């Protein structure tokens, strides 16, 4: 069957009460920062912290009794896996999830916690899919595809209905794109309600599969991306024609844009978004003129980010914003020399986070040392003030933020 707006409305009825109708709220601060009127659809508040529950449950509900008894299999780096595992357990359906070996530990453990049998196989989605197809045939399992399935597309499309029901004045929807299931469903739904609305997709520069497919050029892929949830090398056979017909444009963002968006969502909205979930805000930050003054609905598609990765992103964000700085200062290697510097830093209201002495690996004369200070600072202006004050006090100091 071809997916229609009626299929999406049917999916909304089927999912009601089992999947959250998540908030779609205006962000005054992000609007001021980006120049657009920003509305956030908090799909990271779903029980499995991702929109993937919608399509997974809609597909599972379509299985007949024999298929439910035999069980299902899915291939996913995490969010689809959790959605299938959680709702399969609710419905009493055995589930096997094939996950690439590099999948963040937090996603693997959450999937296991939902009661699924997890198999780590292959270095990417394509390798895992080949293994899963063979395993499905051998064990008689029903494959639940993460995006290239009519029921999946219809389930994801319910987000579009909810966004326009909550905020009927939206002029543009900004949606992460991997294989295309999410944006295909949302575009179909949104344009059936409001034909003039724009639907804009966002991919990473490292995995521009849909962007290149629409332009008819061969994509070049990176080794990895912070947005691993949309690191797909080929759009779906079902999703691509829908995207061609109903999506107005696909934009690209880079890794730095996504990192900045993750930090901003955490600081401003106090909400955790994974890399894929933050790409909508990344697009507004990178392509400001494209969205200036428009009422833009962003889909925060998921919040399943590895805690260690999040910690690293936050620290890098502090460096970019001038709240964490590294100084290299040359000192005489004599008693009291370090105390003079630390006293001056205290006067300048710079909090010392780390200190490292370097005596051997330096070209300085003997009895001299390079001392690396990592300082907590207030802003780029504060960093410049500290540097000038140290030099004025006679210290050979330089900024070194890599």
Give a short summary of the structure:
The chain has 402 residues and is of the alpha/beta class. The protein has 3 domains: 213 residues, Rossmann fold; 92 residues, 3-Layer(aba) Sandwich (Rossmann fold), CATH 3.40.50.1100; 78 residues, 2-Layer Sandwich (Alpha-Beta Plaits).
List the helices and strands and how they pair.
Blueprint: H1 5-15, E1 24-27, H2 28-34, E2 37-42, H3 52-61, H4 65-70, E3 72-75, H5 79-91, E4 95-99, H6 105-113, E5 117-120, H7 125-139, E6 142-143, H8 150-166, E7 172-176, H9 181-193, E8 198-204, H10 209-215, H11 239-246, E9 249-253, H12 255-269, H13 279-286, H14 288-291, E10 295-300, H15 307-320, E11 324-332, H16 337-347, E12 351-358, E13 368-376, H17 380-392, E14 396-399
Parallel strand pairs: 2-10, 3-4, 3-6, 4-5, 7-8, 7-10, 8-9
Antiparallel strand pairs: 1-2, 11-13, 11-14, 12-13
Helix pairs in contact: 1-8, 3-5, 3-8, 5-6, 8-9, 9-11, 12-13, 12-15
Q: What does the model show?
A:
This protein is an alpha/beta fold and 402 residues long. The chain contains 17 helices and 14 strands. Helix content is 45%, strand content 19%. Strands 1-2-10-7-8-9 form a six-stranded mixed beta sheet. Helix 3 runs parallel beside helix 5 (79-91), helix 3 (52-61) packs across helix 8 (150-166) and helix 5 (79-91) runs parallel beside helix 6. It is elongated and about 80 Å long. The relative contact order is 0.12.
């Amino acid at each position: 069957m071809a997916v229609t707006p009626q299929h999406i409305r049917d999916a909304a009825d089927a999912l009601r009460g089992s999947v959250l109708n998540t908030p779609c709220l205006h962000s005054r601060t992000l609007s001021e920062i980006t120049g657009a009127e920003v509305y956030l659809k908090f799909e990271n508040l779903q029980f499995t912290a991702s929109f993937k529950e919608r399509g997974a449950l809609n597909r599972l509900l379509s299985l007949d009794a024999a298929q439910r008894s035999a069980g299902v299999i899915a291939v996913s780096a995490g969010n689809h896996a959790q959605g299938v595992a959680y709702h399969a357990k609710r419905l009493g359906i055995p589930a096997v999830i094939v996950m690439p070996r590099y999948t963040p530990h937090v996603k693997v453990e959450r999937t296991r916690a939902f009661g699924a049998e997890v198999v780590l196989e292959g270095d990417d989605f394509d390798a895992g899919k080949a293994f899963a197809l063979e395993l499905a045939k051998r064990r008689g399992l029903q494959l639940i595809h993460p995006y290239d399935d009519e029921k999946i597309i219809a389930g994801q499309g319910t987000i579009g209905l909810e966004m326009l029901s909550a905020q009927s004045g939206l002029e543009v929807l900004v949606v992460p794109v991997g294989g295309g299931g999410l944006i295909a469903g949302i575009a179909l739904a949104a344009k059936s309600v409001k034909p003039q609305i724009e639907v804009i997709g966002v991919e990473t520069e490292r995995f521009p599969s849909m962007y290149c497919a629409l332009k008819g050029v061969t994509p070049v892929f990176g080794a990895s991306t912070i947005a691993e949830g949309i690191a797909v090398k080929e759009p779906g056979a079902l999703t691509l024609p829908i995207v061609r017909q109903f999506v107005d444009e696909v934009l690209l963002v880079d890794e730095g844009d996504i990192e900045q968006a993750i930090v901003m969502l955490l600081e401003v909205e106090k909400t955790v978004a994974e890399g894929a979930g933050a790409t909508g805000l990344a697009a507004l930050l990178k392509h400001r003129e494209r969205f200036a003054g428009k009422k833009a609905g962003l889909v925060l598609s998921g919040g399943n980010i590895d805690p260690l990765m999040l910690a690293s992103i936050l620290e890098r964000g502090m460096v970019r914003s001038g709240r964490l700085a590294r100084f290299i200062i040359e000192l005489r290697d004599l008693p009291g020399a370090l105390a003079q510097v630390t006293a001056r830093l205290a006067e300048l209201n710079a909090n010392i986070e780390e200190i490292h002495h370097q005596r051997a690996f330096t070209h300085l004369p003997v009895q001299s040392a390079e001392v690396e200070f990592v300082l907590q600072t207030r802003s780029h202006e504060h960093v410049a003030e500290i540097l000038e004050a140290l030099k004025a006090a006679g210290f050979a100091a330089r900024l070194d933020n890599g």
